[in-house]
Amino acid sequence: METLDGATTELQRKIENLFLHVGFNYWTGVPANIIGAAKHVMKHFDGKIPDHKAALLTFYGIGRKIMMLVLQDSFDKSKLDRKDIGLVVDTHLQTNFTRLKVTNKVKADDIAKEMEIWLHPSCYRRVNEVFAGLRQLWESKGDASRTEKNQET
To answer: How far apart, in whole angstroms, are the C-alpha atoms of residue 46 and residue 48?
Structure first.
């Protein structure tokens, strides 16, 4: 078995081939980032993926959205500190919350922080699913542009 210390171009190519089957292209840098993240886990966290915000944010390319997805989907939420659980605001939530005037915030991080003030943590996942689905529905029906035009008048 290959170790991360000896992660070679061959290992990177193997990872690239795996990712090509799920729609990623090698030029995205994903394989190199996976190897880098694995090395980071081994070096700084004794081989265990950290389960708190501050540690996850030390990884290259990890921002609030990915950090929250990791916390939301990878750990037993009953064992997480309440401050380490948050709403995942992706482009769908960002667009819908501003379109529906749920918030006057524009940036995803600002929207998430505002929504977390009044939204119960048990609702975070469902809110994302519903609003992502709503935007996809609008776009599939061609209603997104009409809705925006109606709000402008």
So the answer is: 6
Dist CA 119 CA 135 (whole Å): 20
Express the helix, strand and coil content of the chain in percent, nearest 5 each: 65, 0, 35
User: pTM for this structure?
Assistant: 0.62
User: What is the rounded CA–CA span in Å between residue 94 and residue 105?
Assistant: 9
Question: Residue 30 carries which DSSP code?
Answer: H
Looking at the predicted structure, is the pLDDT value of residue 152 above 60?
no
CA distances from 94 to 13, 32, 59, 111, 128 (A): 36, 30, 24, 7, 10
Give Cα 127 to chain centroid, integer Å. Answer: 14
Apex CA 65: angle with CA 70 and CA 116, to 5°? 100
